[in-house]
Amino acid sequence: MKDTSSNPEMKRFVGVQAARLIRDGMLVGVGTGSTVAFLIEELGRRVREEGLRVVGVPTSFQSRLLCGQLGIPVRDLGDCASLDLAIDGADEVDPDLNLIKGGGGSQTREKVVAAMAKEFVVVVDESKLVPALGTGFAIPIEVLPVALAYVERAVRDLGGSPALRMAKAKDGPVVTDNGQFLLDTRFPAGTDLRHADLALHQIPGVLETGLFFDLAKQVLVGAGDPERPALRTLTRAK
User: Fold this and answer.
1) What's the CATH class of domain 139-208?
2) pLDDT digits 0-9 by tens, 122-153
3) More exposed terminus of the chain, fewer Cβ within 10 Å: N or C?
4) Residue 2: what pLDDT?
5) What is the distance between the alpha carbons of residues 4 and 12, in angstroms, rounded to a whole number?
6) Considering 42, 92, 110, 152, which one is annotated as catalytic?
7) Known catalytic residue at 92
8) Of the candidate ranges 2-11, 24-33, 43-52, 229-238, the one whose mean pLDDT is the lowest
């Protein structure tokens, strides 16, 4: 999970606000990331102190471990066909509420959870709002290790500049919860990323990308002074 030291007060604020969306009896998709860590903490408090009855469906091993530590019952993603609600963070959010996700390396499971939820809500601080996706964050592409060289060449043919994500606390590349590699990829400014995403999914060996189009219905944004934060709610036009 990503470091929570960047703007932690704002992330905690929006994470706590998002936890209030969760109602008794819900089956909830629980995302991955620094803002979601604060959501999980608040949800654990509500379970302990308010007797809230919920079941979480985590998108990563890290979120599952944190849920377990805080007493939140969990269920395996593979046992679920639908969810009442899913809440997750994002690395970038554009004006149409499309996203780049995958800074924590869990974009494939996160996309499955977002798709199966009746409502998918994103929680961010205002630094994640961008005029266009790819402004500052590379697009993660999850790749079968045996297809790495082929996929790298195919991505370059599409105009992308892929870089294998390397681990920081171990030698070698990052390995996702699915046992795959990640190519953090940048495309030239002005690239039609929706078209590029469709093309990427046609490359044998590509499991999933971190581009999330038309999935988020609502984005909760922590804004303003961290000492006196305010909540902005963005809703996608239907």
Assistant:
1) alpha beta
2) 999 999 999 999 989 999 999 999 999 999 99
3) C
4) 45
5) 9
6) 110
7) no
8) 2-11
* Dist CA 103 CA 137 (whole Å): 9
pLDDT of residue 1: 39
What are the domain boundaries of the chain?
Answer: 8-131+213-235, 139-208
pLDDT at 6: 62
Given pLDDT bands bounded at 50, 70 and 90, which one contains residue 31?
very high
Phi and psi dihedrals of 91, rounded to 5? -90, -30
Q: In whole angstroms, give the CA distance from residue 223 to residue 40.
A: 20
CA 122 to the chain's CA centroid = 8
| Whether 92 contacts 86, CB under 8 Å | no
CATH of 8-131+213-235, one of 2.60.40.420, 3.40.50.2000, 2.60.120.810, 3.40.50.1360: 3.40.50.1360
Between the alpha carbon of residue 89 and those of residues 15, 37, 172, 173, 178, the distances in Å are: 9, 10, 27, 24, 20
- Token pair belonging to 89: 């963070």
The three-point CA angle 153-159-165 to 5° equals 60
The single-letter code of the amino acid at 211 is L
Please give the structure tokens belonging to residue 22.
């969760």
CA distance 90 to 15: 13
**DSSP element (H, E) containing 63:** helix 61-69
The DSSP call for residue 113 is H
φ, ψ dihedrals at 94, nearest 5°: -95, 175
